[in-house]
Amino acid sequence: MSKVRKKLIIANWKMNPQSAADAKRLFAEVKQMASKLAKVQTVIAPPSIYLPILSSLYRGHRILLSAQNMFWEEKGSYTGEVSPKMLKDIGATYVILGHSERRAQGEDDQAVNRKVLAALKAGITPVVCVGESDRDHREGTHLTFLRSQITKALKGVSERQLVRIVIAYEPIWAIGKGEGAAMQPDELHETVLFIRKIITELYKKQVAFRLPVIYGGSVEPGNVATLLAEGEVDGLLVGHASLSAKSFNEILKFAQGGVK
User: Fold this and answer.
1) Mean pLDDT for each 10-residue chunk of the chain (260 residues)?
2) Is the pTM of this model over 0.70?
3) Which residues contact 189 (CB under 8 A, 6 or more apart)?
4) Which residues are catalytic?
C-alpha cells in the first residue's frame, strides 16, 4: 500500500502580528488544533524575528516552521540579509521564495533561483511561489508566463533535489480579495496538471507527480473543501486567514477531513 501524502497547509503571517506576545498567543491557539492532526502537515511562517520564540514552544513534527524569505549567500557583507544557515539554526525547515509581494519589490527569477539552490544546499525546503498577474484564456500568455517562471526557478536543480521542493501556485489576481475571488476548482485542477506537465518536460513524469503543488489566493474556511477536493492540490498557502486562529483551525480541520 502506498503512503498517503499529508496535506501541506502553510500559514504565511507576512509582517504580522505586531508583538512577540501576540505571536506566541496565535501560535498557541493554532498548536492546540494542529498538534492533533495526523493527516495534515502544518507549517507556520512568521516574521523571522519570531522563529526562535516559536521554535521553543513546540517539539513535535506536526507543526514545522518556515521563513518568509532569505538571502542566497552563507555569510558576508550583506546588511539586512539573513542566510539559510541562520534560519535553519533558529528552527526553520521551510522557506517561502519568490512570493509575489517580494517580486513586486524587484526580486527577479534569477534571484529566486539562487535562493532555491542555497536553500537546498542548507537542507531547507523551498516553497517556490509562481503565478500570473492576469489570466488570458484566448492567448494563453499566462501559461507561457508560468512555464518561464518554473523553468527559471528550477535551473540547476537536480532530479534528486526536486523532491525536496514545494511549488506554490498563487495567481496574483486572486490574492487577498475574499473567498469569492479564489480560483475556481476546475481551473485550478487544470493549472496543477499544466504545472506537472512542465515538470515532466524538465525531469520525469514519476518525479513530477511526487512534487507537492499547493495553492494560495483568497483561501478561506468556506472554500477550502472544494479547493482541496476538486482542485487536486496537495495543500494550501494561507495568507490573512492564518492570522485568525479560529479561521486557520477551521482550514486545518477541513484539510484533515479531506484526506482519504
Assistant:
1) 78 98 98 97 98 96 98 97 98 97 96 98 98 75 93 97 96 76 90 96 91 95 94 96 98 83
2) yes
3) 230, 231, 232
4) 99, 170
